Amino acid sequence: MQLSRTTWAIADWLERKIGERGILLAFMLPAIAIIVIAQFYPLIYSLWISFVDWTLTKSIEPGPFVGVANYSKMATDSVLLQTIGRTFVFAISSTAASVIIGFILAYFTVGERPAVRIARTILILPMVIAPVAVGTIWRMMLSARVGPINDMLRGIGVPAPDWLGDPRLAVLSIIIIDVWEWTPFVFVIFAAAISSLPSEVLRAAEVDGATPLQILFRIVLPMLAPVGLLVVMFRLLDALLTLDIVFTTTFGGPGFATHTLSFWIYQQGLRYFNISYAAAISWATMLGCLILVIGLLVWRARISRWQQA
Amino acid sequence: MSAMDHSTDTLLRRIPVVAIVLIGLFVTLAPFFILFGNSLRPADEFLSENATLWPSHLTFEYYASVFGANSATLKILFNSIIVTTLTTIVSVSTGCLVAYGLARLKLPFRLSTIIGLTFLVVRFYPKITIAIPYFVLMRDLGLRDTYAAVVIAHVSMTLPVVVWLMLSFFEEFPRQLEQSAMLDGCGVLRRFFSIVLPLTLPAIVTAGLLTAFFSWNEFLFASAVGPLNAKTLPVAISAFITDKGTSWGPMSAMGTIIVLPVVVLAVIAQRYLVRGLTAGAVKG
Questions:
Q1: CA B79 to chain centre
Q2: pLDDT tens-digit map of A2-61
Q3: Whole-Å CA distances, A293 to A133, A193, A289, B70, B123
Q4: Largest CB tally within 10 Å, which of A50, A57, B76, B162?
Q5: How many helices (H) and strands (E) does chain A have?
Q6: φ and ψ at B122, to 5 degrees?
C-alpha cells in the first residue's frame, strides 16, 4: 500500500513535469527502439552486406564493395536455381492441399455443440506446437524402420518406402508434414469467417430451395473469397520460407533433394558463413515475396470491389 | 414430408461429414500419441521388427535422465523457461505501451498510422534475411550466446502481433470511461494503469499466450545467437538429427517436454488463443 502510494506520487510528479503528450511519447519509445535495433538495423545492414565481399571464415571484417556480384552469382548457382523451382512446387502444393482440407474441416465443424467445440480445439493443435517438434514427430512417423506408417503399410501388404531417404519421395514427405502443421491455420481462419457469415442470407437461400451444394458454391465460397485470398497469401509466404521442418527431418537431403530456399540461405550464411551471398539471396527472396504479396492484395481488392458492385 | 423423414435424411447426410471430421481428428492426434508412446518405449523395442504402436512395457528412464542430476537437458529446459518468460513480459509490456500511445496520441503527418504500419512490415519479410546480420550485431555487441540476444530477437518478432492486437482493443475502448476519470483528476498514467489495462486483460492474455508460444517454439534465431549457453529446447532437439543413429527415446522425451505445455495451455485457453490467431484476418 505504502509502495503503491509512493509509485503514484512519482507518476503524478512525472506527469506534471513532462505532460500527457510526453508520457504517451515515452510509452512508445521502448518498443520502437527494440524494433529499430533488432529488425530494421539488421535489415538495412544485410542490404549493405549483399553488396560487399564478406565470408566470415576468411575475415571478421567486411571486405570491399563488389557491386551486384553477389546477385549475379545467383544466376550461376545451380543448386539455388533447382532449389527455387523445388520451393515453388513445395509451397504451391502445400498451400493448395492445406487450404482445401482446412476449408472442408471448418465447413463441417460449424456450431457450438460441445463435441464440435472439442473437435475444433483438437484440430488447432498442430499449428501451436514447435515446428521443430513437428519435424521430430514426423521423422518418427515416417521412419523407414521404426515408423508406424510403414508398420501399417507392411501390415496390409503394401511395400514400405523410405519416405525421407528416397529422393523422389522426400519432397512429398515434407509437403505432407507442412500440410499437417499448417492446415490448422487455414481451419481456424475459415472457422471464424464461416461463423461470422450473415445467417439470414443462408437461411433465405435455404427457404428458396437451394441445395446444400448450391449454397456452398454460389453463396458461401464467393463470400469467403477475400478471407480466402488472405489465407492463401499467408500460407504461400510461410511455405516459401519453410526451414524448421526441413532442418529436423531431412536436413536438406538426401543430397540436395529437400533443400528449400530458406534452408539454402541458412546453409550459405550460418554454415559456410558466406554471409554476403546469403544476404543477396535473402534480398532477392524478399523482393519476390513482396511482388507476390502486392499481386495477391491487388487481386483481393478487385474481388471485394466486384462483390460490392 | 414428415418430420421423421426429414431427420433421417439429415442424419444420413451427416454420416460422411462426421466421418471426415473423425478422420481429421485421427490424423491430427495420432502423431502426438506416437510421440508420447515413444518417450516411454524401452530402447530394445525400437529395434524389434514387430513393435506395437503403444509400447508393451513402459520406461521412465528418458524422463528420469532429463530431470536427473547434472542433466544438460535440465539446463536447456531452464533456458527455455527463462527466455520465454522474459520475452513474454518485455513484449507484452512494451507492446501495450506503444499501442496505447499510438491509439491516444495525435501526431502530425499521420505519424501514428505510419508507425503502426512499420510494425506490421516486420511480419512480411523472411526472418532469415536478418538472422545473419543479427548474429553479426550480437557478436559485435558481445551479446552472442546470452539470454539477452535471444530475448531481444523474440521480442522484436512478437511485438507486431502484440501491438496490432492491443491497438484494436485500445481503439475500441469506451472513451467515456477515460473521460470521466479525467474529470476526477486522473492523469494519463493513472487512467492507463488503473482503468484501461485491467479492462483489457483478456486481450493481454491473448497477446501473452501468442508471444509465449512463439518464443518457446522459436528455432532460427535461438540457434543463430544462442548455440551453447543460451541454448533452448527447439535448438537442442534439432541437434538429434546429426547424431549418428538416432536415439529415438530421449528425442521423444524431449519432444514431449516441448509439446506438452503448449498443448495443455492451448486446450485450457482455447478461447483466448483462437481470438489471437484470427485477429485481423477475418475483419480486415
A1: 16
A2: 567 888 888 888 888 888 888 888 899 999 999 999 999 999 999 998 999 888 778 777
A3: 29, 21, 6, 49, 12
A4: B162
A5: 14, 0
A6: -55, -30
CB A298 within 8 A of CB A229: no
Residue B237: alpha-carbon gap to chain centroid: 17
- Amino acid identity at A118: I
Return the beta strands (E) in A28-132 as ranges.
none
What DSSP element (H or E) covers B77?
Answer: helix B72-104
B179 vs A: CB within 8 A: no
The sign one gets for the Cα dihedral B262, B268, B274, B279 is: negative
CA–CA dist A240, A92 (Å, integer): 9
Q: Do B155 and A34 touch (CB under 8 A)?
A: yes
Residue B215 contacts residue B84 (beta carbons within 8 Å): yes
B181 at A interface, C-beta within 8 A? no
**Contact: A105, B20; criterion CB under 8 Å:** yes
Dihedral sign for Cα A258, B136, B91, B168, please: negative
Residue of A nearest to B182 (CA): A20
CB A180 to CB B262 under 8 A?
Answer: no
**Which of the listed CATH numbers 3.30.1340.30, 1.20.1270.20, 2.30.30.110, 1.10.3720.10 matches domain A78-308?**
1.10.3720.10
Contact assignment for B266 to A125 by CB distance below 8 Å: yes
A65 forms beta bridges with A52
Kindly list the residues from chain A whose CB atom is less than 8 angstroms away from the CB atom of residue B135.
270
Q: pLDDT tens digits, residue range B125-182?
A: 778 888 888 988 998 899 989 999 999 999 999 999 899 899 888 888 888 888 888 8
Q: Which of B36, B87, B118, B132 to mutate to test the interface with A (most CBs of A within 10 A)?
A: B132
Distance in angstroms (rounded) separating the CA atoms of residues A135 and A164: 11
* Cβ of residue B155 closer than 8 Å to a chain A Cβ: yes
What is this model's ipTM? 0.87
Q: CA-CA distance, B81 to B275, in Å (whole number)?
A: 25
Question: Which grid cell sits at A141?
Answer: 512417423
Closest CA to B252 of A274, A14, A140, A189: A140
Residue A197 to residue B282: CA distance in whole angstroms? 11
* Domain ranges (residues) in chain A: 78-308
Chain A residues with CB-CB distance to B94 below 8 A: 30-31, 34
pLDDT digits (tens, 9 = 90+) for A194-220: 988 888 888 888 888 888 888 888 888
- Burial (0-12, 13-18, 19+ Cβ within 10 Å), B44: exposed
Q: Is B266 in contact with A15 (Cβ distance < 8 A)?
A: no
The architecture CATH gives domain B62-278: Orthogonal Bundle (1.10)
* A-contacting residues in B 61-80 (Cβ below 8 Å): none
* Residue B8 banded pLDDT, cuts 50, 70, 90: low
